[in-house]
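Re: weekly structure request thread

Next one in the queue (218 aa):
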Amino acid sequence: MSGEMTRIVIADDHPLVRAALRQAIEARFTSAEAIEVGSFEDAVAEVARHDEVDLLLLDLAMPGVEGFSGLIYLRAQHPSLPVVIVSGNNDPGVIRRSLDFGASGYIPKTVAIDTMAEAIDEVLRGGAWTPPDIDLAQPADQESGDLAKRLTTLTPQQMRVLMMLSQGLLNKQIAYELTVSEATVKAHVSAILQKLGVDSRTQAVILASRIAGVAGAA
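Done, posted below.
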């Protein structure tokens, strides 16, 4: 990849982490563009703005998103874009769930810059990377796997509505934020309930809270 222009979006609200990732990228690739953003909203905007983003490095917890909801949304919106989670949480269960929800890799913030560069290179070559010193051999969480499959059936707009429902927004507030009618929002909510296999908004919000429930994922 060193002979090609490589465009990577770094989405993390900690400037020191972004600087470390940028250093890893610049040390590994002779021709690379690293775009830094500090919020999930800015990450979504940058990915949409550039047609040829090769990789997104995404923090699990930063302004505008928490837990796996951002990863799921971006994977639905941009299914061909590799997303690598960069997190301070080294829990094997969190790493496995990140992979279940579509991540191409998982980089702990504590690893050396050389290791970050190795991980980024591996994913850009079409592979996957997880910390070699963390045991992921245990069986995957069946409940998380089933939930991931159901969530992948949501459209990007339905995923946005689900995230807003989990924030406690009313239909009219969601309609205002998305610039659509309340009837459209109601249709989205009905589709979400059907796809997730639940009977009420409350049950949908409970599922959404499980997506976001990553303790210490800084």
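The longest strand covers residues 6-11. Confidence is low (pLDDT under 50) at residues 214-218.
Next request, please.
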